[in-house]
Amino acid sequence: MIRKYLYGNPIETSAITEEMELSKDPIPYFNELTLNSGETVFTYQMTESDIVYGLGEANRGLNKRGYIYESFCTDDPNHTEEKRSLYGAHNFVVISGMISVGIFIDCAAKVTFDIGYTEQDTLKITPSVPDFKVYVIDGKDAYDIVKQFRKIIGRSYIAPRWAFGFQQSRWSYMNEDEIREVVRKYRENGIPLDAIYLDIDYMEGYKDFTVSDERFPNFKDFVAEMRSQGVRLVPIIDAGVKIEDGYDVYEEGVQNNYFCKREDGSDFVAGVWPGRTHFPDFLNEDARKWFGSKYKVLLDDGIEGFWNDMNEPAMFYTDEGLNEVKDYIKNVDLSNPDSETIFKVKDKLSGLANRMEDYCGFYHNVDGQMIRHDKVHNLFGYNMTRSAGEAFDELEPNKRILMFSRSSYIGMHRYGGIWTGDNQSWWSHLLLNIKMMSSLNMCGFLYSGADLGGFGSNCTRDLMLRWLAFGIFTPLMRNHSALGTRRQECYNFGDTEDFKNILSIRYSLIPYLYSEYMKACLNDDMMIKPLSFEYPADDFARGVEDQLMIGESIMIAPVYEQNANGRYVYLPEDMLLVTFKSSSQRKYQILKKGPHFITVALNEVPVFIRKNKLLPLCRTTICTDNMDTSRFEIIAYTNDNIDYTMYEDDGISKDYDNPNNYCQFSIKKIDDQLGAVSSKTIVKLSLFN
Ligand code: GLC
């Protein structure tokens, strides 16, 4: 059951798509307190065994207990353990214990979730403004609550199937030749690849919707050339529009008042990659339509996917901030500074980016009403992606365009996926990636993933291999790294055989992964789940955060520590361990329910097939265009009749509800013998019981 409550006069976020009456009951389960400051606080007394799930893209564990989180979209490339805010704001939590209850705070401004940080047993939620909506959901268990929530926020964005291929990115591949070289090396080494990313340097002076003539003199031809090799190019689009006379996007934006304004009505200015920019007012419907229509120029060049960036929005500086620093420094004696003086100057300079004062310094025009940015901050990246998504629906009504964003809010999951922003080449960030995936699924962000190998810092060969071995299972599988870091393409770590083999596993799993992803999208379900959602009565499984259920057939247990030769794994039931060395080289072992230590070499990927489930595998390929889905190999763990329903479509059009998109794989007893039955050709059955 879901109850809805209204506080003050909030702006419509469109996070919830279902019409609902306001509840007449008082808020159940939570205590509600209005402070003298006008703030409303919701508290919940947690019992010892309660787990708190949720918050989507947030720091720390799957169980959010024991820390404090601030929902305020933040560009923080150095997100160490103590950080409270990341790029997304996903205000949905589920408390799971003796009773289970979920709460969604639909608030466009900052919301603080103190989950046993100040007081160990108290969950305290504080929206920073008086205007918001609250939804309280009760249900049988955490998973049931998540499914109810997912029903009211609408269907998740659906990516094209090619976006399940491996994708290579770098800030930046500077020109056509550099990209040709990357593709050649992937192909020469037999390492699969489906896409290459264009980071900011493909543009002319970092101007959105331009392409540098010098670096890409025949862009359209180049897009086609790459496409003929099975590689799509995916350009970045940044939120800030460069201020430059003669630049059409800038001039149109100024003329039509499509940019965010200062209080005095002038266009707000912030420094980002191009230098001084204006921010499109994505909360304004006309501006949203206008900006969305701009993607056409790249679609016309044959582009089929985009990533939206810097849309928290991130600011390196404003003139107001710069002036303050200049004034400050003017009065500092730098002839012989002591450490305190130097640290203060340094702090002033580093404090220039993303200042709260600047977020309070500009306004949106929402249906004629001027709203200060900080009050709707979390909707900015959401509406940038919405502007693209709505435009794609018009420009390419029956074609799926890849789209994912850095900043997000619940509701944006209908228009695009997300990547989890600027992580680092740290083992702890691999673990963070593992722990975050199911929380993202709870909030509807199914097409998601992290920068594999880590964005900042230098990646090592072993970290890259272990991260890829996990990335195989995330819908977005992209290797991305920052300017100035060690080259991170798979062929840059010596012997390439292990990389080729690990990626071959991904490509033979794509039909299964895509099927599980599509079924999760179409049924408002999760593709990646914590063990506790499948085995709610198993107390041990409730505590496991570093193993995941991927779809209905498999569990994974990635290795995330350097120099580990394996790891401990908890099996909530008997399972078949398949240790893949490549798509075709495997070892099998049946393991009993309970704890085990499994050895996992650097070039191996362990996959656990659940009892009475099967896993279909196709032949591996070099890109998804070449994938043959008429012939399958089946690995099954059963001594009985079982079925697997596979979703399969053309991967690009939007005919999702066609019943022909489903086919069956069955293990059936025929003349006392178990065999595989399917409309597909089964080339091999590996049956275990
Ligand atoms: C931001 C993005 C990163 C990108 C860089 C340059 O830091 O998060 O992915 O490479 O900007 O565009």
Give a quick set of tags describing it.
alpha/beta, 9-stranded parallel sheet, 689 residues, 6-stranded antiparallel sheet, single chain
Query: Shape, please?
Result: globular
The profile of the biggest β sheet is: 9 strands, parallel
Average pLDDT value? 97
Treating each run of at least 4 consecutive H or I residues as one helix, how many helices?
15
- SS elements, strand count: 40
Assign the structural class, choosing from mainly alpha, mainly beta, alpha/beta, alpha+beta, or little secondary structure. Answer: alpha/beta
The amount of beta strand, in percent, is 25-35%
Straight-line distance between termini: 41 Å
Low-confidence stretches: none
Q: Specify Rg, calculated over alpha carbons.
A: 25 Å
Q: What bound compounds does this protein have?
A: alpha-D-glucopyranose
Spatial arrangement of strands, main beta sheet = 24-23-21-18-14-13-12-26-25
- The share of residues in helices is 10-25%
Secondary structure topology:
Layout: E1 2-7, E2 31-34, E3 40-45, E4 51-54, E5 67-71, E6 88-89, E7 92-96, E8 100-106, E9 111-115, E10 122-127, E11 132-138, H1 142-153, E12 167-168, H2 176-188, E13 195-198, H3 219-228, E14 232-238, E15 241-242, H4 248-255, E16 270-272, E17 275-278, H5 285-293, H6 296-299, E18 305-309, H7 319-330, H8 339-350, H9 356-359, E19 363-366, E20 369-372, H10 380-395, E21 402-405, E22 408-409, E23 417-419, H11 427-442, E24 448-449, E25 451-452, H12 461-471, E26 478-479, H13 497-522, E27 528-530, H14 531-534, H15 539-542, E28 548-550, E29 554-556, E30 566-571, E31 575-580, E32 586-591, E33 594-599, E34 605-610, E35 613-617, E36 631-637, E37 642-647, E38 662-670, E39 673-678, E40 681-688
Parallel strand pairs: 6-22, 12-13, 12-26, 13-14, 14-18, 18-21, 21-23, 23-24, 25-26, 36-40
Antiparallel strand pairs: 1-11, 2-3, 3-10, 4-7, 5-9, 7-8, 8-11, 9-10, 15-17, 16-17, 19-20, 27-28, 28-29, 29-34, 30-33, 31-32, 31-34, 35-36, 37-38, 38-39
Helix pairs in contact: 5-10
